[in-house]
Specification:
Number of domains: 1
Shape: globular
CATH architecture: Roll
Order of helices and strands: HHEEEHEEHEE
CATH class: Mainly Beta
Strand content: 25-35%
Low-confidence stretches: 14-19
Number of helices: 4
Structural class: alpha+beta
CATH superfamily: Electron Transport, Fmn-binding Protein, Chain A
Radius of gyration: 17 Å
Mean pLDDT: 91
Largest sheet: 7 strands, antiparallel
CATH topology: Pnp Oxidase, Chain A
Distance between the termini: 40 Å
Oligomer: single chain
Length: about 170
């Protein structure tokens, strides 16, 4: 069954699933989000372009940590760094194709150039792309501090609203 077809079949079952399961807790929603993100691996990272239009690219994030904070390594000369400096609002969207589930993280992005902080939040998979690793001037990290996490995963018992398809969400202070 294709992912789209599976999503259609599951969406038709949403009212019955939602009624049977009740409202998941904050910790259940976040645990589902973590699982989706880990299984997704790569995620889409969205910032606002110079003209205000959303700009998306694929990233390999580190995280989430206990506060649901993420880090993304990038070249300091990329458009996304300039875009974040102009408008720190960003979105990270991770999709687990095997279960047609997704987690969306709405966040405030900040550029991290400090070598010690980069080293504390370094992912080994990034090293081949940066000659000096976390110590180099050819890399900065983007720290994503969440304001809201939205999760849809019927297979994990995290179904969206049956009528509006509004995802389950956790808001951070």
């Amino acid at each position: 069954m294709t992912s789209l077809r599976a999503w259609i079949v599951l969406s038709l079952m949403l009212p019955a699933l939602a009624a049977a399961q009740g409202q998941p807790s904050r910790s259940q929603i976040l645990a589902g989000g973590r699982d989706i993100i880990q299984k997704a691996g790569y995620c889409s990272f969205i910032t606002a372009g110079e003209d205000g239009h959303p700009q998306a690219r694929i990233v390999d994030p580190l995280g989430p940590d206990e506060n649901f904070t993420f880090y993304v390594a990038t070249n300091p000369l990329t458009r996304k760094v300039d875009q974040i400096r102009r408008d720190p609002r960003a979105t990270l969207l991770c999709f687990d194709a095997t279960t047609s589930s997704y987690a969306t993280v709405l966040a405030k992005a900040a550029i991290v150039a400090d070598a010690e902080e980069k080293a504390r939040h370094w992912k080994a998979a990034w090293t081949p792309f940066y000659s000096a690793g976390a110590k180099g001037d050819d890399v900065v990290l983007i720290r994503l501090t969440p304001s809201r996490v939205e999760v849809v995963s019927v297979s994990r018992g995290l179904a969206p609203d049956a009528k509006t398809w509004l995802p389950l969400a956790v808001t951070f202070p």
